[in-house]
Write a structure and sequence with these properties.
It is a single chain. This protein is an alpha/beta fold. The chain has two domains: about 55 residues, no CATH class; about 120 residues, 3-Layer(aba) Sandwich (Rossmann fold). It is built from four helices and 13 strands. Strands 8-7-6-5-9-10-13 form a seven-stranded mixed sheet, sandwiched between helices. It has a two-stranded antiparallel ribbon with strand order 1-4. A two-stranded antiparallel ribbon has the order 2-3. A hairpin with a 2-residue loop joins strand 2 and strand 3. Bound molecules: flavin-adenine dinucleotide. The site of flavin-adenine dinucleotide has 22 residues, from helix 1.
Length: about 220
């Protein structure tokens, strides 16, 4: 969660904005920022030496705990951010595992530099654009088959997450989804980011705070 301080002397925008840790380089944290509104614009315009208040890491992230052999990361738009760091992290934790990244955007103009992505992740992501202006044409979940994948991780717009979830549940593939909820406090206090969840064992439904109990949930926990 990050907030910048304006020349006005108070935090602008007032509420922090959630961001993924996209890279850790020489003790620094790297972010991938897509400009939506005032908060992301201010972050993208920071200069070296500017101050920001950073709170984190917060919440529950992706978990490679079950030693999967083949991991598929499905990234929609700026949902790419966590999958910049994850392939290197996975290679360190699970040297024998294969990690693949599917990355979809609306069009070529929105696609993060493929060369830079290869340099940062150490792998070639399979790029999709909805209009076919770069990479494969269509939605990233078009024709997606999970086959011999042991674990699928997804981050991106909710319709994409829902499609990945359905495919994973149908094929019995372990699946974790990072939900895109607006967040305010990041500490579970404001109850601004609740998502409906279900306990897969008992069937009990309850609301969870995405900022501390998420944003990553297992597919079976989300009753979509
Ligand atoms: C867990 C998590 C991790 C994230 N990681 C990143 C990241 O690494 N890089 C990045 O660029 N963005 C990331 N986002 C999205 C980012 O938080 C929003 O883009 C940001 O809050 C927008 O703030 P703003 O002040 O620029 O825009 P605002 O003025 O607050 O909003 C501008 C427009 O964007 C929409 N919007 C705002 N927040 C979101 C959101 N979370 N999801 C969908 N639409 C939204 C608003 O409805 C509005 O239409 C993440 C979001 C979550 C929940």
């Amino acid at each position: 969660m990050m907030v910048g301080y304006g020349s006005e002397g108070y935090a602008v925008p007032f509420l922090p904005r959630p961001n993924s840790v996209a890279a850790t380089i020489d003790g620094s944290v790297g972010l991938l920022i897509r400009i939506f509104g005032e908060g992301s614009r201010r972050l993208a315009q920071l200069d070296a030496g500017d101050s920001v208040l950073l709170l984190g890491p917060l919440g529950v992230g992706f978990d490679l705990g079950q030693a999967p052999r083949k991991v598929l990361c499905v990234a929609g738009g700026v949902g790419l951010a966590p999958f910049i760091l994850l392939p290197r992290w996975a290679r360190e934790a699970l040297p024998d595992a294969e990690v693949h990244v599917l990355y979809g955007e609306r069009d070529a103009a929105a696609v993060f530099d493929a060369g830079k992505l290869r340099e940062l992740t150490g792998i070639d992501a399979e790029i999709w654009t909805e209009d076919g202006s770069l990479g494969r044409k269509g939605r990233i979940t078009d024709g997606l088959e999970l086959g011999d994948i042991d674990l699928v991780l997804a981050c991106g717009p909710t319709p994409m997450l829902k499609a990945v979830r359905e495919l994973a549940l149908d094929s019995g593939t372990a699946c974790q989804l990072a939900v895109e909820e607006h967040m305010a406090c990041g500490m579970g206090t404001c109850i601004g980011c609740i998502v409906e969840t279900v306990d897969p064992t008992t069937g009990e439904q309850r609301y969870a705070r995405a900022c501390i109990e998420g944003p990553v949930f297992r597919a079976e926990q989300l009753p979509w």
